[in-house]
Amino acid sequence: MLAFTLKRLGLAVLVTLTVSVISFSLLHLSGNPAAALAGENATPADLEAITRQYGFDRPLPVQYADWLWNALHGDFGQSYYFKLPVSSLIADRLSVTMTLGVCAICFALFTAVPLGVAAAVRPNSIIDRTALFLSVAGQAMPSFWFGLVLIVLFSIKMRLLPPSGSASWQHFIMPTIVLGYYAMPAIMRLTRAGMMEVLNADYIRTAHAKGAGAGRVLFKHALRNAIVPVVSLAAVQMGFMLGGSIVVEAIFALHGAGYLAWESISRHDLPTVQALILIFSCFYIVFTFLSDLANAWLDPRIRVG
Amino acid sequence: MADTILTVEDLTVDIPIGAGTLHAVRGISFDLKRGETLCIVGESGSGKSLTSLAVMGLLGKRIKRDAAKLEFDGKDLAAIGPNEMRALRGDRMAMIFQEPMTSLNPAYTIGDQLCEALHLHRKVSKAGAEKHAVELLGKVGITAAESRLKQYPHQLSGGLRQRVMIAMALMCEPELIIADEPTTALDVTIQAQILRLLADLKREMNLALILVTHDLGVVARIADKVAVMYAGEIVEAGTAAQIFDNPAHPYTRGLMRCIPVPGKTKPGEPLGSIPGIVPSLVGGIEGCAFRERCELATAACRKTVPERTAKGGHRYRCVHDIASAKVA
């Protein structure tokens, strides 16, 4: 297990470095950063000054090494637009995004996995059909539309939940449902397919033959084997929810990191965009790493050669 | 303690399928005493595996089981609820399956899976269960048993896994073991070892053993009693000596011609075969199910087939009175 963990960790670090190179160079390749910073009415003298001030005249590898070194110490530079340290800017926004992401993935897992199991136990039953309907609807409904429907229903008509903002836990209920519902169908269908396959396996019959009860067979013997691909999927979705929840954040006016990314891109706020790309990528990398570890724990064939 | 451990009378297994009902097991009867080995022989689709699953109560939800009598040690298995049945399974009656490669759960260690059977039925400490597991692994011929407990199924060979399956079936010291083709998936030398192991264990523990197989060589080695199944029926049943020395039913005779006999079958001589295929079991079958493939078939075979009893309780189902008339 230790060797496996170290190997995965090594890979994760390599991927992180690669991503840092790409995120650094993409923005430098997208035009002269000094021009973007100076604005449309800048004189050549202004450009010169800005270039020198920010060190854009240095060779790219030096700029990269400098940027990475600072980034490793939590210093992503100053935001061009907010004139604040990027790190504190992101830290503020990240707590909102993290809360939303964690709630959404938990909501998705705790509804989709039991539904998938129930659907697999009784295929073509009412439960299975309802679950199928829910997942088709989930795939078909755009999240902005679903979000607006919820606001109309629960905030305007029933006046039960606040429509926007992030002041209290009630503010997170609707965004959690919208974001989680987006991840549900895939998790549910994968759980169902995995359980259907595993429940037909010979070792399930063995468990029954030993005299194990239905619940024990289902959750101890079957689910542990069926859940492995679901863990990998959930990790990717978690990464997506933390980085790509821009639409949901915008609808419910939750000022999270996704929203900040969108703002920064439209304002050419280079250091913020760079930092966000790196952080979002790191989320993916961390969650993939964690899901690898979880799967190795679940399935000994992964961890013991 | 009653001498007879299992009584089966007029057992049927029906599988509903799209078009109608597949009558997979069509009214079979047999009984088994403690310490006895019954071999159920037949080709694929003859209903032998379903018979064993029916006795264990392991048929799927959609499959219908019916019997005039299904008694285990005087207990009516048809009348007891699923919880009582579950309490019997793995405790007093255990099963060994055909596929050792896939019959163990890949996610748990051998030790976990062995001890689970014991924990389900007995109050034992973890250490006590492990000690018992190590003993049994030794008994089924696994070396370094203690370190095996921490291994996972994928780290063991097929033969070892089948030994683990046998040890698992023995964990609660059952009175009846049903082994459904336990050697089919193994290579020949391992087959012989596993069969010898089963025979030894049976003798040592006074087990009643039902061995389901299509391999007559296996039957000859281990059986006390034999039941030959064809198209969901027992077409012939008797002691091993009766079946091997005086096979009565044309199907049994056909099967016997399919196996080479050391010393009798000359090199290069073609072995016998039974032409044709098993009839469809969807809907009812009138008359003898074997008549399409039988060399003795006459018009009378379309009518109801009588069950005949030859001397010594040797039973067979055939229109022709083969055992006394010596038709060959």
In summary, what is this structure?
The complex is a heterodimer of chains A (305) and B (328). Chain A is mainly alpha-helical.
Q: Can you describe what's shown?
A:
The complex is a heterodimer of chains A (305) and B (328). Chain A has helices spanning 2-29, 33-38, 44-54, 60-72, 86-121, 126-140, 143-157, 173-199, 202-210, 214-226, 228-243, 246-251, 257-266, 270-298, 300-303. With 305 residues, chain A is mainly alpha-helical. Chain A has one domain (86-303): MetI-like fold. In chain A, α8 runs antiparallel to α11 (228-243). The model of chain A has no long low-confidence stretch (mean pLDDT 88). Chain B is of the alpha/beta class. Chain B contains 11 helices and 13 strands. In chain B, strands 7-8-9-3-10-11-13-12 form an 8-stranded mixed β-sheet, sandwiched between helices. In chain B, strands 1, 2, 4, 5 and 6 form a 5-stranded antiparallel β-sheet that branches. Chain B is globular. In chain B, 45% of the residues are buried. The mean pLDDT of chain B is 88. The chains are: A mainly alpha (305), B alpha/beta (328). The A-B interface holds A 201-203, 205-213, 221, 224-225, 298-301, 304 and B 56, 58, 86-91, 94-95, 97, 99, 102-107, 109, 116-117, 120-121, 152, 154-155, 165, 168.
